[in-house]
Specification:
Largest sheet: 12 strands, antiparallel
Oligomer: single chain
Strand content: 25-35%
CATH architecture of the largest domain: Up-down Bundle
Number of strands: 16
Distance between the termini: 99 Å
Number of helices: 7
CATH topology of the largest domain: Cytochrome Bc1 Complex, Chain C
Amino acid sequence: MSAPSERYTTVAIVLHWIIAIAIVGMLMGGWYMTNLPDGAPGQYDLYQFHKSLGITILLLTVARIIWRVMNPPPALPGDMKGWEKSLSHLVHIGVYLLMIALPLTGWLYSSVSLKLDVPTVLYGVISWPDMPFVEGLKTEAGAGAANRAHGMLGFLAVALIALHIGGAIKHEFGAEDGVIKRMAPGLFGPDNVFAKPSRGALTAFGSAFALLVVIAGAGPAMSALSGAGAPVASGATFEPNWAVDADASSIRFSGIHDGNEFSGQFGNWDAAIQFEPTAPENAEVRVTVSTASATANQKLYTDSLPSGEWFNTAAFPTASVDILDIASGGDGTYTSTARLTLKDLTVDAAFPFELQIDGDRAQMTGQAVFQRTPLDLGQASDPGADWVSEDITVNVVVEADRLN
């Protein structure tokens, strides 16, 4: 019976196989999704899962490196040749570097891409910000270089993985003492291996978790400091004669994304209304909306809306709507024009609505349909409406009390 040999710790083994499976899945998924035609069903979700998997690999690799430092791996078999040991060490170093570089270049490309200028939401739950300090690379040339680097590292990963697997198989079935049993004990039946006592689980996984919290928490922290949630005012130059009941009123929007309906609403807006049912043609209505207050039915959509190619909330924190040319159609129905100004662009849309007045209480419901292109919404990543519908429907409900 051969002398007992040392194996990797249980934590190292679990991390090794989880990361290995994730890398293989990421490589296969990456090649598959990039060969799909733009707008193919499910492609958007594949990109999000690919990015989520990449960040997961990055965080697990941080834990793996810290664990390896605190729990050194077993020495290579003594009967391995010197050059084989050197090659093995070089391959291991290369694999570790790739486990860091592949996710980082993917994160970089996602941050500077013009075609895929969409946020990253890990598994649809955790917002992950763009890489800091790379805004200058957000050009066709910069994004192309990042994409090429990410792709080339993918091919290099395949080569290193092949070397890694080939070497392990060679030493397992060659004359030397095998190494596979150290990372997969029991795979070939009973073996005479042992693991030294381990330490540092809290340090390794705590560090990875802390990195997740720091990076993922940066965006919400900056939003809170910016005061984006401060109540807006209509900014009307006329005296309103109705006070809007904000709790009973809403501005909602909807459309189609990747074949599925999406919806959302604005949580911070104000309206000034001067309206007399006997003279609707003299009415004045001004609505001001905080663009940063938009939320959607999926976190990914909510995170997308503040970006430069959508609402660009940093440069244009508010949008305004004036309701013009109000005319009665009888029985509480009206026609009007909604003039929307967003990102310094102004468009008109028909805005029919119904109005019911009961004493000093009024309720209005109306709908308008706007097109994305004239408002420069999503024109960098989806100008052909392959993913997001051109038409966006806005539904408005307003309940108000007459001012005495």
